[in-house]
Amino acid sequence: MSSIPPLVPRDRYAALDRCTYLNQASLGLIPVPTIDAMDAFLRQTAQFGNLYLSDDQEAAILDGVRSAGAEVLGSSSGAVAVVAGASEGLGQVTSLLEPEHGTVLLVGSDFASVTYPWLAAAERRGISLRFIDDRADRDLTQDLVEAIDPTTVVVAFSVVQYATGTRVDARRVAERAHEVGARVIVDATQLTGAGVVDTVGWVRTHW
Q1: 82, 66 Cβ separation under 8 angstroms
Q2: What is the distance between the alpha carbons of residues 9 and 15, in angstroms, rounded to a whole number?
Q3: How many Cβ atoms are within 10 Å of 33's Cβ, its own excluded?
Q4: How confident is the model at residue 200, as a pLDDT?
Q5: Which of 179, 121, 175 minimizes the C-alpha distance to 150?
Q6: For 24, left (φ over 0), alpha (ψ -120 to 50), or beta?
Q7: Which of 61, 89, 153, 183 is 20 to 30 Å from 175 by CA-CA measure?
């Protein structure tokens, strides 16, 4: 199996010249150029607040982050929101989409940030939760597609399952979900940087 070329060369990570680092989920490594950019921002801008920024400069301060994020996520910069982390973003999306009734489809072993907001939503609303098992002897994509029915209002899943590495075909799931009018939430955290994320292509057939 061929290796995936890294987005950032290994020599830009200070820790990798003396160890193999496996703890990405808890505290991922930050490459040296990123640290330099963060340091420059803190010294040149952050420590002064908006003292030396015009209103236009302040409003545009995250434009570069959005543009870079759009390139990685296969999206437009206008569709990118900057949040503190995946957990915050997924929680906000749940609140925005929270339906009054219907079924929300989830993967039973998915990352807590994907499922926990819906557990809370089910206590507030008349929605039911259905969990699909990620089993080694089955196709998770197919099981998700087959589980979607007219009662389904939301399908939420990680495109790469953190516990097993199972890859879900997000486009197939989105295609079926949209046939019944369901919303789709995809956590691409485990895929981003290791494979191609194409948020536009995943739903292009329904535009």
Answers
A1: yes
A2: 13
A3: 11
A4: 79
A5: 179
A6: alpha
A7: 89
Q: What are phi and psi of 102, to 5 degrees?
A: 110, -175
Structure-token pair, residue 120:
């809370």
Say if residues 165 and 134 touch (Cβ distance below 8 Å).
no
Q: What is the pLDDT of residue 204?
A: 61
Q: Cα separations (Å) of 158 from 155, 189, 190?
A: 10, 8, 8
186 C-beta neighbours (distance < 10 Å), count: 20
Ranges under pLDDT 70 in the chain? 1-6, 23-26, 204-207
Residue recorded with tokens 């920024």: 53
Q: Does the pTM of the predicted model rise above 0.85? A: no
Distance CA 17, CA 78 (A): 38
- Cβ-count burial 87-123 (b if 16+ within 10 Å, e if not): bebbbebbeebbeeebbbbbbebbbebbbebbeebee
Distance CA 13, CA 202 (A): 32
The two tokens of residue 17 are: 């010249």
**What backbone phi and psi angles, to 5 degrees, belong to 143?**
-65, -40
Written as six digits, the tokens of 107 are: 């993967």
Q: Helices 140-147 and 170-179 meet at what angle, rounded to 10?
A: 10
Give the tokens for residue 40: 């420059």
pLDDT digits (tens, 9 = 90+) for 101-115: 999 999 999 999 999
